């Protein structure tokens, strides 16, 4: 059966970077059927909603989806439930892609681009597994209310259930089994929360510990509070292998980890649900409105998101390996966009990668 790939270029630099990713995909897997859909702020402008039922239905029936980026200052005053970001949260929720894989690796050619000392990041290879469809992002009740005294109160609800914790923890443990030997002191899974102050964090720690004893005692498990882990990541990042985090801490720690690697413009991500359901792939970077439309954005994160899709959803690890090597070689030969200290345009960077395929 023909495999199908849905592209949702979205806003800001999204269309620019996904264009390059599509070119790469069409070269390494020409038989895959690629189509595009409206998403995010541009979908709101056209259809009054960031995610139409039609695009959602097409996403559900695809093998993999690549989302470029959503959001921008022009939608800052759009009603909350119609904001571009809400389209993304709804898409993640509807597809039930609860395990967000965010690798933070440092390509050898980029070790010097990191804001940290080269020896701290050379060879860095971390996998962050972030819970993506629950926690404070989705917990009810949430809102902004006016109290009797006229003061306003904003509130969100951080909450997790046993099954939500267990299913994402299982993914992290399984990934760690395939990454033996990586990381240093914390070479297995580092589970992170704030169990010292949050009950949802305490439950997280208890459930992860239980699952570990039941099914994964061969994998090393450490618990590190999220504030301490944030510190460890800039002190000795190579001590860490797999990080298991909830939705909010995973969001923050993955941005931090991305900066270790030289540029957030390099990092892809995969959001996975149960086997056999479509995976959602996204560059970790946002819509970067400050450089949108200028042809300056680094397309590597989008290209490497295609690489992850080939590997995790489309069962084409050979094609994925080709893409990975092409990016690595292009970087080694000196290809650099502005975020990496160079001057190549988005298209020229795409060309440099394609030249190595
Ligand atoms: C991310 C982004 C999103 C998130 C935003 C755009 C809603 O920061 O994918 O990391 O917070 O999940
Ligand atoms: Mg984020």
What does this protein look like?
- β8, α7 and β9 form a beta-alpha-beta unit.
- The chain is built from twelve helices and twelve strands.
- The strands form two sheets. It has a ten-stranded mixed beta sheet with strand order 2-1-3-12-11-4-5-10-8-9, with helices on both faces. The chain has a two-stranded antiparallel ribbon with strand order 6-7.
- The two termini are 26 Å apart.
- α1 packs across α10, α1 (14-28) packs parallel to α12 (346-355) and α8 (226-235) packs parallel to α9.
- With 357 residues, the protein is α/β, with parallel strands linked by helices.
- The protein has two domains: 1-98 and 268-357, Isopropylmalate Dehydrogenase; 125-259, Isopropylmalate Dehydrogenase.
- The model has no long low-confidence stretch (mean pLDDT 96).
- The chain has helices at 14-28, 41-47, 53-60, 84-95, 118-121, 162-177, 199-215, 226-235, 247-260, 300-312, 317-332, 346-355, and strands at 4-10, 33-36, 64-69, 99-105, 125-131, 143-146, 152-155, 186-193, 221-225, 240-245, 268-272, 279-283.
- Helices cover 40% and strands 19% of the residues.
- The structure holds 3-isopropylmalic acid and magnesium ion.
């Amino acid at each position: 059966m023909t495999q199908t790939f849905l592209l949702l270029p979205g806003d800001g630099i999204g269309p620019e970077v996904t264009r390059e990713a599509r070119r790469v995909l069409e070269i390494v897997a020409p038989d895959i059927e690629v189509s595009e859909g409206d998403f995010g702020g541009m979908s709101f402008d056209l259809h009054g909603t960031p995610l139409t039922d039609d695009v959602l239905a097409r996403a559900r029936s695809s093998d993999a989806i690549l989302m470029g980026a959503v959001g921008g200052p022009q939608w800052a005053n759009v009603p909350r439930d119609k904001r571009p970001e809400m389209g993304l949260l709804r898409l993640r929720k509807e597809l039930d892609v609860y395990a967000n894989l965010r690798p933070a690796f440092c390509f050898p050619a980029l070790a010097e681009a990191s804001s940290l000392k080269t020896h701290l990041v050379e060879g860095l290879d971390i996998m962050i597994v972030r819970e993506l469809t629950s926690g404070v992002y989705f917990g009810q009740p949430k809102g902004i209310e006016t109290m009797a005294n006229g003061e306003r109160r904003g509130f969100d609800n951080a909450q997790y259930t046993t099954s939500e914790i267990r299913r994402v923890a299982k993914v992290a443990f399984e990934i760690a089994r395939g990454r033996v030997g990586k990381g240093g002191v914390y070479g297995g899974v580092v589970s992170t929360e704030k169990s010292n102050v949050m009950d949802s964090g305490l439950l997280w720690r208890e459930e992860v510990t239980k699952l570990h004893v039941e099914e994964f005692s061969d994998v090393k498990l450490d618990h590190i509070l999220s504030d301490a882990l944030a510190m460890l990541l800039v002190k000795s990042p190579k001590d860490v292998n797999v990080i298991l985090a909830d939705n909010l801490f995973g969001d923050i720690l993955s941005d931090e980890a991305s900066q270790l690697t030289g540029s957030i413009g390099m990092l892809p991500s995969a959001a996975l649900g149960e086997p056999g359901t479509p995976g959602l792939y996204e560059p970790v970077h946002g819509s970067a409105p400050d450089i949108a439309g200028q042809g300056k954005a680094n397309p590597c994160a989008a290209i490497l998101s295609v690489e992850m899709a080939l590997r995790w959803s489309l069962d084409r690890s050979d094609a994925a390996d080709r893409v990975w090597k092409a990016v690595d070689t292009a970087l080694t030969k000196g290809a650099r966009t502005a975020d990496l200290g160079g001057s190549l345009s988005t298209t020229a960077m795409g060309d440099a990668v394609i030249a190595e395929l």
